[in-house]
Each structure stands twice: as structure tokens, then as C-alpha cells.
Amino acid sequence: MTVTVIYGGKSGEHEISLVSAAAVTRNIDSKNTVQLIAITKDGRWFLQPQSEFERIKADSKASFKIIEDESQEVSVIPGGGSKRTFRAGSKILSSDVIFPVLHGPFGEDGTIQGLFEMVDVPYVGCTTLGSAITMDKEKTKVALAQAGIPVVPGICVRRSDLATANGYDTILERAQKELGFPLFVKPCAAGSSDGATLAKDLAHLNGAIIEAFLWDDKILIEKAVNAREIECSVTGNPTIDDDSCPAEKLTAYGPGEIAPKHDFYDYDAKYNDPDGADLLIPANLPEEKLEEVRTLAKKAFAALDLAGLSRVDFFIDKDTNKLYLNEINTMPGFTQISMFPKMCGAFGLDFTSLTNLLIDEAIARFKKTRNLQTSR
Question: Could you tell me the strand order of the sheet in which 33-39 lies?
Fold first, then answer.
């Protein structure tokens, strides 16, 4: 089987993708053939040489580099399917399944998933709709609340809301009155805490709003919960699971706990500071609380029609012990310190078995959806 790993991309998480994809590539079963396609920061696609695959396989700490060989620039072939998936120069490339290790906008927001649907090829991870909904934090909160899942109190602000001085003042007053300080301000559609700021007073709030609007046209202002950060890995496909494929069984692994040593679990704590947080697997919680997290994680995954994999992130309020679902990541990090593969591994699913499972789910989903009637 030919597995095409795609990485890089136009998002602010480009560098993290290079690290995550290297880890995934090292852990794809050797029975498969792997081909690599890298996407530059300006959105160009390039087929990577075999030497890049061999370099990554030989060095467990290496991350991918993007080699921009103009003769190997890639284009996709709509309707080409597995036999005619891509064109690199004059060469036609086949692909039995695509493993897109892309984080953030243009990677896990439904855009590239829609492209794969048009190409007519199996791909790992959530569908176009599931990816799009979960990338938008506001729409995720609305959908989860509708499903009866507790979310952090907050307000959504659009750029148009701030078009006048009066509109801006109204937002500031509402945030202080309804939520109170401290507050978290973050873009609705960004990942890895890009553009997220903890605002402790009005002066911080003004700066935080400006920063968040650099990343998106819609932002969230949320109550800063005095929280423990709990995460849970989920795999499967509850929408189509009929017991015919074990990879489709809805399964939760974990949960684990992140104990940040920064003000919050920001980009530096996640990726740059090796001592930025303690990762506890399993989380130091009573069994009934662990099970509550697993149950809510699976409920959210099913409610949003997610598929393949997601990392579901929770807060537990230290003052009230109340559980809130914070956000869902449909292509979580796969770095050496990332929680998703660590939780799967701690609960019996090693990295290679994990990639096998995700590939199996992608192919099973593709076969079932292609059996659906599309015309009379």
C-alpha cells in the first residue's frame, strides 16, 4: 500500500507539522510504501526525495526539511482516485491513502479534506464538515452546548463589532460585566495557542483583542477558569460503525493532565520549552472523574460527526470541580512530547498500531461512503 504523508502548510503551525509528520512517518508500518509531499508556507506542493524519508527514518530526533525542486512541483488530479492522485512534473503518482499531518488553517479546517474528496482518495482524519466545525471555536461551542456538553462561558466578537468606538466600548463593558477578569482572548480559528493571551485587567484586554485580531476576523473572550488542563485521545467513527471494521469503534484513551509551568499552556510551553509543563498519564483524578472525561469526550466526538482521531481538551475548575470541554483538535500534535500519541501508548495502542488503525479507518470510511447513491 502507498501512504502519502503530507506536511508543512500555510498555517502558523507549519514548523510543528514538520516535527509531527516526521514522527508519524517513522511509525508507519514498514509493509507500506511511503511517499512524501511537503507544502511550503506560500502554499506550493513539492514531492520530496527518497533521501528525505531515509534521513528521517535514521534519526529519531530529526524533523522534515522542505526541498523545493521545481521539477517535482505537485498538482492534484480531481477525480483521479488512488491510481491518478497527483502529478509531479510529468510523472503521475498513485496513492492508496493520504495521511495529512497538517495543523491549523488549510490543514485541519476542512479545506484540504474537501480537496481529497474531489480527488476521490481515502484520507486519515475527520471529514470536511467535522474539520471545519471544530476549527471554528465559536461554532464548536454552540454545537457542544446544543448537545448538552458544558463549555466555558464566553462571548464571540467579530471584526465588524468593533467598527465604531461605541461598539468597542460595548464589547469591553460586556466582557467585564458578564465574565470578569481574568479573561482569555483567542482567535476562533487558530491552533497551538497562536494569538491567545491571558488578560488580567482592562489594559491587558485591549492588547489581547488587538493580538487576537491579527490571526482571525472573529475572536473569543472567555472566562479564565482556574483550571486543571485535562486531555483525552479519541479514535473511531461512530457515524458509520457497524462492527465490520474494528478501527471504527469509538474509543477513548486517557485522560492525561497537563500541568503548565507558564501562565498557561502557551506555544512556548507546548513546543519550545522542554520543561514547560508536566505531562501526567493518567491524570491524577478519581476513577469516576476519569470515566466522566472519557464519556464526554466520546459524546462530543459523536455529536460533531468526527472520524479517525481527535484530541478532546477539558478544564476542571479547581474551585468548583466542574468539568468544561475547552476545544477539540482534529489533527493533534505528534511530536515527542505530544499528548495524543502518549495517551494512546499508555493505554495499549503503540505508535505503529495507532497509524495502522487510522489508515484502516480512513480506507473503511472511503469504501462505505463510495457505496452511497450519488445520482439517479
Answer: 45-47, 33-39, 2-8, 97-101
Between the alpha carbon of residue 20 and those of residues 26, 64, 171, 300, 338, the distances in Å are: 10, 9, 38, 25, 9
DSSP letter for each residue of 261-307: SSSSS-HIIIII-TTSEEEESS-SS-HHHHHHHHHHHHHHHHHTT--
- Per-residue CA distances from 44 to 181, 185, 268 (Å): 43, 32, 28
DSSP 3-state of 42: coil
Amino acid letter, residue 365: R
Cell 475548575 sits on residue: 317
Percent of the chain with pLDDT over 90: 87
First to last CA, the chain: 33
2-8 and 97-101 as β-strands: parallel, antiparallel, unpaired?
parallel
- Count of CA atoms in the C-beta half-sphere (13 A) of 298: 17
Report DSSP letters for 346-359, one per residue.
Answer: HTT--HHHHHHHHH
Contact 282, 371 (CB under 8 A): no
Mean pLDDT is lowest, of 10-14, 76-80, 116-120, 248-252, for 10-14
For residue 169, CA distances in Å to 160, 164, 172 come to 13, 9, 5
Edge-to-edge strand list for the sheet holding 277-280: 277-280, 251-260, 227-236, 308-317, 323-329
Give how far the C-alpha of residue 57 lies from the chain's centroid of Cα atoms, to the nearest Å.
Answer: 24
Judge whether 226 and 180 are in contact, CB under 8 Å. Answer: no
Q: What is the mean pLDDT of residues 328-352?
A: 94
For 151-169, how does the pLDDT look when each residue is reduced to its tens digit (9 = 90+)? 999 999 999 998 887 988 9
User: For residue 368, what is the DSSP state?
Assistant: H
**The pLDDT of residue 157:** 95
Residue 51 parent element (H or E): helix 50-58
Question: Which amino acid, one-letter code, is at 33?
Answer: T
Distances 76 to 104, 138, 278, 325, 364 between C-alpha atoms, Å: 21, 32, 42, 37, 23
- Assess whether pLDDT exceeds 80 at residue 263: no
